[in-house]
Design goal:
The structure holds two protein chains of two kinds.
Chain A (H helix, E strand, L loop, with lengths): L1 E4 L2 E4 L6 H8 L1 H8 L3 E5 L4 E2 L10 E6 L8
Parallel strand pairs in A: 1-5
Antiparallel strand pairs in A: 1-2, 3-5
Helix pairs in contact in A: 1-2
Chain B lengths: L9 H10 L33 E9 L9 H13 L3 E6 L8 H4 L6 H9 L4 E3 L9 H10 L2 E2 L3 E2 L7 E2 L1 E5 L5 E8 L19 E2 L2 H6 L10 E7 L2 H10 L5 E3 L5 E2 L4 E3 L2 E4 L7 E10 L2 E11 L8 H11 L7 E4 L4 E2 H17 L3 E5 L7 E2 L2 E3 H7 L5 E7 L1 H15 L4 E4 L2 E6 L8 E4 L12 E6 H6 L9 E6 H10 L13 E5 L7
Parallel strand pairs in B: 1-2, 2-3, 3-4, 4-6, 8-10, 10-11, 11-14, 19-26, 24-28
Antiparallel strand pairs in B: 1-15, 5-9, 7-8, 13-14, 15-16, 17-21, 18-20, 19-23, 22-26, 22-27, 24-25
Helix pairs in contact in B: 2-8, 9-13
The chains are: A alpha+beta, B alpha/beta.
C-alpha cells in the first residue's frame, strides 16, 4: 500500500502502522518522533499514535511538537 | 420555553474544571436532575414525555489495547458526572484487546478489560479488528456480556448478541440509535487480524453497509455511528451520510481535539491506549439535536481515581499467567545464533513460510532458561513486531542480507529455512552471498520464496522487493509462544549456526 509522508510517497506492506511507515521514510525522523521531539499528524492536522493502523492512501505529516502539547 | 445553551448547564462546570476549558462556559442556573435509567434496548416500551430541552453526555474511548491503568481515572470521571444527574453514556469504539502482554496472556485472555468495562458500565461497544486476536471465543464473551454493534459482520450465528445497531433510551425518553462498522482490508476483505481468527464470519464493505442504515435516523433523536474504520474513513462517512449526528471512531489512533464538524456531522476519536477520554455534549430541543461539541480529557492531568477500580487494576497486574512455563528445554538456549534460529523457526513452522529472518538487535536477552516462561518470551522479544510475509526471489533475499551486513560488516540477521555465507572482501557484492538449503545444497534460483520478516526489518532495512508484502496479523512473540507450546525438539538449539561471515584482510571490520 502507499502512504504519503511529508509529500513523499512510501510503498509499504499492507497492514503497516504509523511507526512502520516512519521507519521506512527516515531513520532520523523516526528517532525524533520516538523521542517526542516531533509528532505525526494526519491531513487534517490531528496527531496520530505510532501504533495507528493504516489502510493505504493516507497522508501523514511530521511536525515539531508544541511545548504545551501532551505526548501521546 | 426558556432557552438553555451548553454554557448554562451545571455539569459543564465540572467538565470545564476537569479539562481546563474556557471560563466562558460557566454560568449556571439549571438544577441537576435524577440519574437516568438506561433501558438501553430496542424493545424499550416506556417512553416518558420528552422535555423541551435535554442534555446528553457521551464519554467515549477507543483502541485501549489492553492499557488498563487509566480506567481508575475514567471511573472517577464517569461517577462524578453520573452523580450530577446528567444523562451520561459510555461508549467504546473498539480494539480494547491486544497490546499489553499481561492482559493478552491473562487466563482467560483479555479478562481484565472485560471486567473493567463491566465495572464502568459501558453502554455499547463497537467491535474492532483486534477484538478477534484472542479468537472467536473471546469475542463471544464480549457479545454475550455487553451491548455490541457491528453492521458489516455477518456472524452466521457465531457471535450471539452482536447487533448491527441498538437503540438506547435515556431518561427523557430520548432514543439514541447507535450502529457499528468495522474496517476490512482491501486485499482479503477481512479485518486486520490473523485470518484464522475470523474463520466462519464474513464481512462487507463498511461505508456501503453504513449507507444502507440511513433510515435508522427516524428511530431516534440522536443518531450515532460507533465506528472502527479510521479517521479518514470517518470523514468520508460524514460526507456521505449527513443523517448522522455524531461519529465516534477508532482504529487510526487519531487524537481529535476538539471534535471536527464535517457536513454537519460531529466526528470524534480519542487517540489510543487510554491516554484520553472523549466527551461529547449534545443539546436537544424539541427532540432535535441543536448543539453538539466534543473534547478530549487528557487523563495524565486527572488526579481523581476510583479506589476500588485502582485496587482491581493492581490485582490484574499481579497475574501469575506470565510466570507460566510453556516449554522445557534440555539445555539453556544461549547466544544470538541459537535464539535467532529458534525465533525464526517459530515464524516458519507456525505460519507455513519457507524462510524467516530475525535481526540480532531484536534478540533482547542472551539466554533462555530450561524452563521457559511467557515472561521469558516477552523479555526476549518485547517489541510487539508483527510478522510480515513478502514473497522474494533469491536475489531479493541476497539484497536483504547485503543491506543487513553493509552497515556493520558482520552477521546481523539470523535465519530459518536456509543458511547463508557472506564473503566480505572489503566491498560487499550480491554475488558474494551464497544461499543454501538446510541440506547444504544451493538454493534453487528459479522461484520465489515465502519469507517472514518482523515488521521492524520490513520497514527499517533498505532492500528491493517486488512484492510489497502484508502482515499476518500476529506478532513474532506470539509465533514463538505457539511454537514452544507445540513441544518442538529444543535440543537442536544446543549448537546451531546458519549465518556465516567470512572477512578478508580488506574488510573494514577485519
Amino acid at each position: 500500500m502507499q502512504i504519503r509522508v511529508n509529500s513523499q510517497m512510501i510503498e509499504i506492506f499492507a497492514g503497516a502502522t504509523v511507526k512502520d511507515v516512519l521507519r521506512k521514510y527516515s531513520r532520523e525522523e523516526w528517532k525524533r518522533v520516538r523521542s517526542g521531539e516531533n509528532t505525526v499528524r494526519d491531513g487534517q492536522g490531528h496527531e496520530v499514535g505510532l501504533d495507528g493502523e493504516l489502510g493505504g492512501g493516507e497522508e501523514l505529516f511530521i511536525k515539531p511538537r508544541a511545548a504545551a502539547e501532551p505526548r501521546s | 420555553m426558556r432557552r438553555v445553551g451548553f454554557a448554562s448547564l451545571p455539569i459543564v462546570l465540572v467538565f470545564a474544571a476537569l479539562i481546563g476549558a474556557s471560563a466562558t462556559w460557566a454560568t449556571s442556573s439549571t438544577p441537576a436532575t435524577t440519574r437516568p435509567s438506561l433501558t438501553g434496548e430496542s424493545s424499550a416500551t416506556t417512553r416518558p414525555a420528552q422535555p423541551a430541552e435535554s442534555h446528553v453526555v457521551i464519554f467515549h474511548t477507543n483502541d485501549v489495547h489492553g492499557r488498563i491503568d487509566n480506567f481508575a481515572k475514567v471511573a472517577a470521571i464517569l461517577d462524578a458526572e453520573r452523580k450530577t444527574g446528567a444523562d451520561v453514556f459510555f461508549f467504546s469504539a473498539g480494539d480494547n484487546f491486544t497490546g499489553d502482554p499481561v492482559i493478552d496472556r491473562y487466563d482467560p485472555p483479555g479478562e481484565p478489560i472485560v471486567e473493567l468495562l463491566d465495572r464502568l458500565h459501558v453502554d455499547v461497544i463497537s467491535i474492532g479488528n483486534h477484538e478477534f486476536d484472542y479468537g472467536l471465543e473471546a469475542v463471544r464473551k464480549l457479545t454475550a456480556r455487553f451491548r455490541t454493534v457491528s453492521a458489516n459482520i455477518e456472524t452466521k450465528g457465531l457471535l450471539p448478541g452482536l447487533q448491527p445497531y441498538i437503540v438506547l433510551t435515556a431518561k427523557d425518553g430520548i432514543k439514541i440509535v447507535v450502529f457499528g462498522i468495522i474496517q476490512i482490508e482491501p486485499g482479503n476483505g477481512l479485518p486486520s487480524t490473523h485470518p484464522d481468527k475470523v474463520k466462519g464470519l464474513s464481512f462487507s464493505e463498511p461505508l456501503a453497509k453504513a449507507l444502507e442504515l440511513k433510515n435508522l435516523r427516524a428511530q431516534g433523536q440522536i443518531f450515532v455511528g460507533l465506528t472502527h474504520i479510521g479517521f479518514d474513513q470517518d470523514l468520508l462517512l460524514a460526507k456521505e451520510m449527513p443523517e448522522i449526528d455524531v461519529i465516534i471512531g477508532g482504529h487510526s489512533h487519531t487524537r481529535v481535539d476538539p471534535a471536527e464538524t464535517v457536513n454537519g456531522v460531529l466526528v470524534a476519536q480519542a487517540g489510543a491506549e487510554n491516554q484520553f477520554l472523549g466527551r461529547i455534549d449534545l443539546l436537544l430541543r424539541d427532540g432535535k439535536v441543536v448543539e453538539k461539541k466534543g473534547r478530549l480529557i487528557d487523563l495524565s492531568k486527572v488526579r481523581d481515581e476510583d479506589p476500588e477500580i485502582k485496587a482491581l487494576i493492581a490485582k490484574f497486574h499481579q497475574s501469575p499467567a506470565m510466570a507460566r512455563v510453556i516449554a522445557h528445554a534440555p539445555v539453556e538456549i544461549t547466544g544470538k545464533n541459537a535464539l535467532g534460529s529458534l525465533m525464526t523457526d517459530a515464524i516458519c513452522k507456525m505460519h507455513g513460510l519457507d524462510i524467516a529472518f530475525q535481526n540480532n538487535g531484536g534478540i533482547r536477552i542472551n539466554r533462555l532458561p530450561r524452563a521457559i516462561t511467557l515472561n521469558d518470551v516477552y523479555t526476549l522479544d518485547p517489541f510487539g513486531n508483527q510478522i510480515v510475509r513478502i514473497d522474494m526471489t533469491p536475489d531479493e533475499i541476497r539484497g536483504l542480507i547485503w543491506s543487513s551486513c553493509e552497515r556493520r560488516h558482520d552477521i546481523d540477521l539470523q535465519v530459518s529455512g536456509i543458511s547463508y555465507f557472506v564473503r566480505d572482501e572489503g566491498v560487499l557484492r550480491l554475488q558474494d552471498i551464497e544461499l543454501r538449503r538446510p541440506d547444504g545444497s544451493p538454493l534453487p534460483e528459479d522461484r520465489t520464496y515465502k519469507v517472514g520478516l518482523s515488521s521492524y526489518i520490513a520497514s527499517s532495512y533498505q532492500f528491493a522487493h517486488k512484492d510489497p508484502g502484508r502482515t499476518l496479523g500476529i506478532t513474532t512473540a506470539e509465533a514463538l509462544i505457539s511454537y514452544l507450546e507445540s513441544s518442538p525438539d529444543l535440543s537442536v538449539y544446543r549448537e546451531v549456526q546458519r549465518a556465516h561471515y567470512q572477512k578478508s584482510a580488506g574488510s573494514p571490520r577485519d
